[in-house]
Request: fold
Amino acid sequence: MELKAIIEAILFNSQKPLSPKELRDVLSQTADNSEEPLAKSFKKTKDEEIIALLEELAKDHEAAARTFRLVCVAGAWQFVSQPEFAPWIKTLVGEKSRPGRLSQPALETLAIIAYRQPLTRAEIEQIRGVAVDGVMQTLLERGIVEQTGRAEVVGRPALYGTTPAFLEYFGLRGLEDLPAADELRKIPVKKPDALLTVEPGLATAPPEQLAMQEVTGRETAPPETPVSEPRSTSPTEPPSESSPRA
Reply:
């Protein structure tokens, strides 16, 4: 019995996609719980070998032109039916409700994150040229984007990246399968040494920086210019025409 056939049987009966690591765990647990010499021989199978066999299986099913195929989405493998059989399968099992489509601004923001991750919200807005607060909230709630860390700048703003749900949503095996977008990758982004704003209540700057900003602002504020009284117009002197506004 070939290991490739065993992996195929595991995937065929699995209720969810399985990653190479999960397949390796099944092989290892079977070796521990079985007295079969064959099962024990697969205990130390490496991920690289499993991936190679999965690739072979996918090619085998593609060449056989069966009604289903083996695919990898977000690093996990599963059998799926061919798209042309969708109408009959929907009648049999029903159609799973999917979240609503993403808006154009959400797709644009998501593309920036996917190709340039990890990056901060300020960097996203720098590329898009508009605020992305509402769009980011939508992407975070949908689980397509997540916080991946914090930038090493003053205030340590959050960094954002895509999630496995992003790959599943678009049917991608991994980020390397994203379409080429050289222009988007080349857009320069200036990483600030400090936050763009230290407005109280808006920034995450340290309290001492906010206090210093407030004190400095009071010390350097220019004196108020007194407002001059309007000059009265003489009856013999026509009023001067106001200059056109630019």
